[in-house]
TrEMBL record:
The keyword Transcription applies. Gene3D superfamilies: Homeodomain-like, Tetracycline Repressor, domain 2. The keyword Transcription regulation applies. PANTHER family: HTH-TYPE TRANSCRIPTIONAL REGULATOR YJDC, TRANSCRIPTIONAL REGULATORY PROTEIN. It comes from Sphingomonas zeae. Transmembrane segments: none annotated. Residues 14-74 form the HTH tetR-type domain. This is TetR/AcrR family transcriptional regulator. GO terms for molecular function: DNA binding. It comes from the Bacteria.
Length: 202
């Protein structure tokens, strides 16, 4: 994947930055930006605070790098969904991929983006803005894909591509919140089935 971090080579530092960043990602994912203290991060990463600053910058810079890693490794299904041959296929690939990511047995539950888009403290304002901007970029791409579906006759001409993309994202955000609160995966799978049953295909 284009944004994946390269493998560790040599010994420029006493720790592997890729492994440390993956550990930081899990802390942010499970605790949120505001809830993740520097002590939490350094303990999980297995490094000292000076080493963290030297390798990643401050906490905000570390989060941005962790978010890049999250998008590269955990959200590849979003890029793949845009290549599906039909608009319904786009939606199904996106929803099924999200469900798998949100209910993984080896990762924190829910969606990192949703966790941080609802952060409310002053410290997290720039983080929230960054997450919202990245989400908007994805929604724009999905809207364009749905517009193409309308133009090609895959979707009815009365379908509003932007509204449909917003609806799809609302379902995804709802799934993320429920997954994060412990709703079983079979219930979320049924939610996906219901959403797809209402899809406005021709």
């Amino acid at each position: 994947m284009e944004n994946a971090l390269p493998a560790c080579k040599g010994r420029p530092r006493e720790f592997c930055t890729q492994q440390a960043l993956a550990a930081a990602l899990r802390v942010f994912w499970s605790k949120g930006y505001e809830g993740a203290s520097m002590a939490d991060l350094t303990e999980a990463m297995g490094i000292t605070k000076p080493s963290l600053y030297a390798a990643f910058g401050n906490k905000e810079s570390l989060f941005h790098k962790a978010l890049d890693l999250y998008e590269a490794e955990k959200l590849a299904y979003i890029r793949d969904s845009l290549d599906q041959p039909t608009a319904r296929g786009v939606a199904e690939h996106l929803l099924r991929g999200a469900l798998k990511a949100m209910t993984s047995q080896t990762e924190p539950k829910g969606c990192l983006g949703v966790i941080h888009s609802v952060a409310c403290g002053s410290e997290a304002e720039s983080i929230k803005a960054e997450v919202v901007a990245r989400r908007a970029s994805v929604q724009t791409a999905i809207t364009a894909r749905f517009q193409r579906a309308v133009d090609e006759g895959d979707l009815r001409p009365d379908v509003d591509p932007e509204a449909l993309a917003n609806l799809l994202y609302a379902v995804l955000q709802g799934m993320a919140v429920q997954a994060g609160s412990g709703v079983p995966s079979d219930q979320l799978d049924a939610l996906v089935d219901s959403a797809l049953a209402l899809w406005p295909s021709r």
